[in-house]
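Incident log, structure service

09:12 report received: a user says their structure output differs between two submissions of the same chain.
09:20 pulled the input from the user's history:
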Amino acid sequence: MSDESTDPKSIPEHRKMAIELFNHTWSLIDLKQRTPDHIDEMIHSAYASSYHWLRGGEPANQARGHWQISRVYVVAERSEPALYHATRCLSLCKEIGLQDWDLAFGYEALARSYSLAGDSAKTKQDLDLARSVPIEKKEYREPLESDLSTITIPT
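09:34 re-ran on a clean worker, output below:
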């Protein structure tokens, strides 16, 4: 009997589910007002997306999954799990050699998480590191700078 999660024929289905759940999670992040049920759904959806990337994606998708989970926890105002997943994202980026916007957004996730945790020194440090990452395409630099501009340095 084969294990469905490692069956190569299941990879396209895992990819499809990962993408759908990633986009659904983002739609919940974008809500102007969230109920506790929305927050629960957002957290579960981000984890489900990440799970499907583990089964049908590349290592870069795993790093991006941690990035989204970190963002979800920032939205939910839970700094400890946000920091954990931001740290995992950045560690994976470095481990597998991701550069460009993946690396920059790894630092963005840390800065955003440290901002929520109230650590001004680490927020500023990771904002500076995110801005220092070379990004080849201008169209990728602009969304990064826009995201970074939403992070406040705690006082």
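09:41 both user submissions now match this output. Likely a transient worker issue. Closing.
09:42 reviewer note: The chain is about 75% helix and 0% strand. The chain has one domain: 4-148.
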